[in-house]
Write a structure and sequence with these properties.
By secondary structure, the chain is α/β, with parallel strands linked by helices. The protein has a single domain, classed as Carbamate kinase. The protein has eight helices and 14 strands. The strands form four sheets. It has an eight-stranded mixed β-sheet, sandwiched between helices. Strands 3-4 form a two-stranded antiparallel ribbon. Strands 6-7 form a two-stranded antiparallel ribbon. It binds adenosine-5'-diphosphate and N-acetyl-L-glutamyl 5-phosphate. Adenosine-5'-diphosphate binds at residues 12-14, 41, 43, 62, 163, 185, 187, 190-191, 194, 217-222, 225.
């Protein structure tokens, strides 16, 4: 039997911080037919709230250094405020959303990120997705909304990059579905020239990708995003796209497609 298509959409911090844009996007997302999953970040809001609490935010290579105080703040912001607000807006648009962290029903198991020379604290890298439980929700017309909080099965909460959550969920669900992964952010796609908002590169493949990195065209947060895109394609995800909030509309023509 052929697999059903599953849409996985990730929204980032700049979209989440603009209430009007976020609501318009959530209305379109709610109208998407078929099984779907929303993954949200919210790094920008977490940095603002940390700052208001007198905590400094430190990012290294696109990932937040998450000390004991920061893991408390990000859990409150991602798994509480943002996750529940997004689920409430989707309910308003008649999408039966369930706001979840990776802890709930052991949906996303992770381990503390260990890399040479950098102590990221309670930042997590993903080990496993509970695809059977997520499948159960989807089959009952429930739409999971995941935030960036995971756990290590030893009682420790971990903060995981939301792009990584989206690609790992897409990889994990690929055993059951044909998965389409969509990264939604504030620009129309990956740009040839960051000053020209319409200079969207329509297709990036695994050969052109390193050249764009060498030329400095791809930098900052786009580096881990593209790494996650290619990792997803290599591990069986069907389609990967990057674009703005109109990406979930069928009529949209301008975005970046990633291919192997
Ligand atoms: N070539 C590029 N095209 C588009 N954005 C780029 C490019 N190179 C670097 N960027 C930066 O990457 C950012 C997106 O990454 P990030 O801030 O992590 O997004 P999000 O929080 O939505 O995941 C953009 O806001 C932009 O500043
Ligand atoms: C470990 C790590 O970096 N976690 C991220 C999780 C949120 C996120 O990825 O948010 P955006 O998608 O809005 O950037 C962070 O705390 O910023």
């Amino acid at each position: 039997m052929s697999k059903q298509t599953l849409q996985i959409v990730k929204i980032g911090g700049n979209v989440i911080n603009n209430e009007t844009v976020l609501n318009a996007f959530l209305k379109d997302f709610a109208a998407l037919k078929g099984p779907k999953i929303l993954v949200h970040g919210g790094g920008k809001r977490a940095s603002e709230i940390s700052s208001a609490m007198g905590l400094e935010s430190k990012m290294i290579n696109g990932r937040r250094v998450t000390d004991a105080a920061t893991v408390e703040v990000v859990t409150m912001v991602y798994a509480g405020l943002l996750n529940k607000n997004i689920a409430a807006q989707l309910q308003k648009y008649s999408c039966n959303a369930i706001g979840l962290s990776g802890v709930d029903a052991n949906c996303i198991l992770a381990h503390k990120r260990i890399v040479k020379d950098v102590d990221y604290g309670f930042a997590g890298d993903v080990d496993a997705i509970n695809s059977q439980f997520i499948h159960l929700l989807l089959q009952n017309n429930v739409t999971p909304v995941f935030c960036a909080i995971t756990h290590d099965k030893n009682g420790q909460l971990l903060n995981t990059n939301a792009d990584t959550i989206a690609s790992e969920v897409a990889i994990g669900m690929s055993e059951l579905y044909l998965t389409d992964l969509n990264f939604v952010f504030e620009l129309k796609g990956v740009l040839e020239n960051i000053e020209d908002k319409n200079s969207v590169i329509k297709e990036i493949n695994s050969k052109t990708y390193p050249k764009l990195v060498d030329k400095g065209i791809i930098s900052d947060g786009m580096l881990p995003k593209l790494h996650n895109c290619f990792n997803a394609l290599e591990k069986g995800v069907n389609k990967v796209k990057i674009g703005d909030v109109t990406l979930v509309k069928e009529s949209i023509k301008l975005y970046t497609t990633l291919t192997l």
